[in-house]
Backbone:
């Protein structure tokens, strides 16, 4: 029965994606003078060259990190939205460590990434602490913390690490020893891909195979029951958020060290918000996070290519996202079909019981 | 006489898989007052909500005057002359009585609301049915009894010939109830048909012509009220014509496990819910706590298990004063707890049976070692437990919420009993579950006692406390009002007098609840 349920969720997600794509198709047909070309670029564009495939994977890496981070926090039923801020702060932290320490090749990025993770923990952890201490809604405070993280980060870069010789507001060049190795030539796919894979397995193992993950799941499913069972739910709530922030922070650090040579973000990169979409699509299960991240990255890159190569704007992708999120979150969508199945099960259960 | 309304073969399954109605037939004769009785969760309200178009059944047909009708919405039901007065009133408090009554069908003077006409309509209506009510007063200022009248008039104005009243007397004083009954009889004389949902049997006897008994989502009988006694009805409702007996030998009490000394507890409104209660419990005996719900049982259980912090008095378990212990620390003293509200405290409904079976011992070996779960052991144990406790399911991986109430309770019991408890706090362990599961759980409790577990059994079920307890205390209004050393000599009638607060023992006798050193 459990597998049937999972099947249902798969079917539902697929149907949702198809509906969203059909909408896009209609929209493109309506607005474009060259719909065939636009559609081709949108759907095939991301895989028509090594460079484009590279773009998809490059975007998938940070989305995987933020998706995992959000999944961890949502699993404990903590709607902490500071993955965005934690991702940004993680990159700031990594930049600061990269520029202030002088370490050998392999050690340097590891220290910078871990440092970025810890800074990320701080960003999601403070709303978590406020929740535990005063029952302040983590949703509200974490939302605000994104801005705190952003302006603090900009302040730090501006005042301590800014390169006065560069034309824009960017940091000094990061030392070569800290940058992540490129994995595949002719793309910018970097070592972060391997780190992301490690984190996927680690998060899965953590949630489903360790007692801490179990605590987190029980608390997320029914915190009163967790308490009754003797689980210290306050600890779990705080811990989940610290951990989520850590993963997001590592993501930010990896992104910086893999894709850039200076810290150059002038605004929040929005990858933390996208992590929420990824987590929702993946139903908070780390195993599905890379699939969801790949899907979203594919859409984004496809839309970018389409915007460049045809007369359709890349905002189309937000329409798709919007439809997908609304329909996935809408529990009643296709509920009729699920109910039919529930009804059958319940009925056969009764006839079984009465047959005894 | 032909049937005015017939519901045939109605089956309703809620999205969580709970079967609220199963092949229910229901019929109404014109001009009768028809009672629908049953325990909580028996499916009375669901059936009526189907009739009023608030729920759609998966199967079944409804006939009105032998003509098949589909009731897909409440407005459709109203159109067909069916009205419903809900338990929780649906009125606008800041509007007047007249405005509420005409709401949705307002009289108009060109485009403006005609207030005078609304008042006239209300007066005409209330005098027709002999309801005493002031159309000009604001709904928020009138007492509950009057609000109910407003609801009834509202339904009548919309042409209701069949009126469904969902536990109408639950909120009324005895005087208001009397008045309501008078008015309902007037309605009946004027040709209306009334469905009266209740579980107060006296009222059913006083008011109704026929009654339908619901149990466990099924219609278990239709009777003329004059043909059955209150006792008959109650037996039909609970379906315990076979009183369950549990074979148990003499207790063999060992050392004292639990000592409760002068504990008191206030609720959030500052009322004393538990007042200076003292008792003790030995290993190998069952101490029953009888009482009507809401007389301090909940507070007692929450204090004992650490869900509530203890502020007055002292509780000792196995020699440890647990006043400042966390839930975890209390559980580590080998205390198990079957909560009365199993859906809130007993399970996580969206998790699998397996995952619900070790929430209290996941951090001990062999369930986990150095933080890593032992999946093999967990799987093996869950399979064993499903078998041992006869949990009816497809596999231990099935979601708990797909199980029936009795099987959900077995999941709770399996978890709590398998922790090898020395002290078991069983709070309403068999409430609202089927007979088979009830019997099974009771046997298990006795079995634990025989293995030297001390059991504190809190139950509002007279049959249960009297069958299982070796010793018994009665809680009334937060106080222990009686203590019985020998339950076998006790009669249900006598116990009832203490539970209702009509009798109280001498302090001397009550002190017997504490074991002599």
Residues:
């Amino acid at each position: 029965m459990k597998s049937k349920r999972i099947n249902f969720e798969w079917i539902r997600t697929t149907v949702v994606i198809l509906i969203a794509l059909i909408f896009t198709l209609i929209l493109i047909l309506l607005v474009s003078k060259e719909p065939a070309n636009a559609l081709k670029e949108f759907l095939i564009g991301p895989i028509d060259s090594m460079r484009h495939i590279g773009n998809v994977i490059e975007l998938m890496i940070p989305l995987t990190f933020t998706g995992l981070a959000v999944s961890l926090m949502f699993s404990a039923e903590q709607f902490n939205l500071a993955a965005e801020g934690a991702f940004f702060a993680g990159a700031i932290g990594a930049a600061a460590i990269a520029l202030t320490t002088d370490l050998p090749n392999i050690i340097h990025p590891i220290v910078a990434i871990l440092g970025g993770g810890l800074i990320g923990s701080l960003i999601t952890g403070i709303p978590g602490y406020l929740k535990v201490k005063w029952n302040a809604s983590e949703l509200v405070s974490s939302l605000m913390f994104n801005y705190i993280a952003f302006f603090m980060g900009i302040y730090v870069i501006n005042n301590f690490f800014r390169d006065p010789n560069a034309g824009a507001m960017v940091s000094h060049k990061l030392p070569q020893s800290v940058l992540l190795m490129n994995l595949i030539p002719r793309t910018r796919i970097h070592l972060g891909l391997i780190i992301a894979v490690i984190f996927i397995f680690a998060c899965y193992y953590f949630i489903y195979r360790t007692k801490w993950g179990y605590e987190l799941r029980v608390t997320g499913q029914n915190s009163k029951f967790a308490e009754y069972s003797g689980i210290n739910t306050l600890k779990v709530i705080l811990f989940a958020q610290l951990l989520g922030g850590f993963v997001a922070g590592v993501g930010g650090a990896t992104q910086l060290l893999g894709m850039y040579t200076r810290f150059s973000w002038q605004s929040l990169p929005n990858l933390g918000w996208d992590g929420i979409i990824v987590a929702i699509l993946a139903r908070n299960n780390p195993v599905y996070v890379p699939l969801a991240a790949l899907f979203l990255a594919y859409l984004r890159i496809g839309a970018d290519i389409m915007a460049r190569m045809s007369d359709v704007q890349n905002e189309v992708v937000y329409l798709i996202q919007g439809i997908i999120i609304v329909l996935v979150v809408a529990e009643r969508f296709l509920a009729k079909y699920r109910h039919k199945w529930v009804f059958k099960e319940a009925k056969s259960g009764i006839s079984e019981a009465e047959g005894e | 006489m032909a049937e005015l309304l017939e519901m045939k073969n109605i089956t309703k399954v809620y999205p969580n898989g709970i079967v609220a109605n199963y092949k229910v037939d229901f019929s109404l004769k014109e001009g009768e007052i028809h009672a629908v009785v049953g325990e909580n969760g028996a499916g009375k309200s669901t059936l009526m909500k189907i009739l009023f178009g608030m729920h759609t059944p998966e199967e079944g047909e409804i006939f009105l005057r032998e003509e098949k009708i589909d009731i897909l919405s409440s407005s459709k039901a109203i159109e067909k002359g069916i009205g419903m007065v809900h338990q929780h009133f649906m009125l606008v408090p800041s509007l007047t009585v007249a405005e509420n009554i005409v709401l949705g069908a307002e009289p108009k003077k060109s485009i403006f609301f005609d207030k005078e006409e609304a008042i006239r309509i209300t007066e005409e209506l209330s005098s027709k049915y002999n309801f005493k009510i002031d159309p000009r007063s604001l709904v928020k200022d009138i007492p509950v009894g009057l609000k109910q009248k407003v609801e009834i008039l509202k339904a009548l104005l919309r042409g209701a010939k069949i009126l469904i009243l969902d536990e109408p007397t639950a909120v009324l004083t005895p005087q208001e109830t009397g008045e309501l009954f008078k008015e309902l009889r007037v309605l009946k004389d004027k040709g209306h048909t009334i469905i009266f949902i209740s579980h107060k049997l006296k009222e059913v006897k006083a008011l109704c012509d026929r009654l339908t008994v619901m149990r466990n989502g099924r219609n278990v009988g239709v009777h003329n009220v004059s043909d059955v006694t209150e006792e008959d009805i109650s037996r039909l409702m609970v379906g315990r014509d076979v009183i369950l007996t549990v074979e148990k030998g003499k207790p063999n009490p060992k050392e004292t496990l639990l000592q409760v000394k002068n504990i008191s507890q206030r609720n959030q409104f500052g009322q004393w819910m538990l007042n200076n209660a003292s008792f003790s419990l030995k290993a190998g005996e069952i101490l029953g706590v009888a009482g009507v719900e809401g007389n301090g049982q909940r507070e007692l259980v929450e204090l004992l298990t650490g869900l509530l912090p203890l502020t007055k008095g002292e509780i000792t378990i196995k020699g440890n004063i647990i006043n400042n212990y966390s839930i975890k620390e209390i559980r580590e003293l080998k205390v198990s707890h079957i909560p009365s509200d199993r859906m809130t405290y007993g399970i996580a409904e969206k998790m699998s049976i397996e995952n619900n079976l070790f929430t209290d011992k996941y951090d001990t070996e062999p369930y986990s070692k150095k933080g890593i779960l032992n999946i093999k052991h967990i799987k093996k144990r869950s399979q064993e437990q499903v078998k041992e406790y006869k949990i009816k399911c497809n596999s231990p991986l099935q979601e708990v919420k797909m199980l029936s109430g009795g099987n959900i309770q077995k999941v709770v019991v399996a978890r709590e009993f398998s922790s090898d408890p020395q002290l078991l706090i069983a709070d309403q362990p068999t409430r609202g579950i089927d007979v088979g599961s009830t019997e099974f759980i009771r046997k298990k409790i006795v079995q634990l006692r025989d293995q030297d577990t001390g059991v504190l059994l809190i139950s509002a079920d007279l049959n249960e406390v009297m069958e299982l307890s070796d010793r018994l205390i009665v809680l009334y209004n937060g106080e222990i009002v009686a203590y019985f050393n020998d339950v076998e000599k006790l009669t249900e009638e006598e116990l009832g007098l203490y539970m209702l607060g009509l009798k109280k023992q001498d302090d001397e006798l009550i002190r017997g609840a504490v074991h002599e050193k």
Chain A has a mean pLDDT of 90.
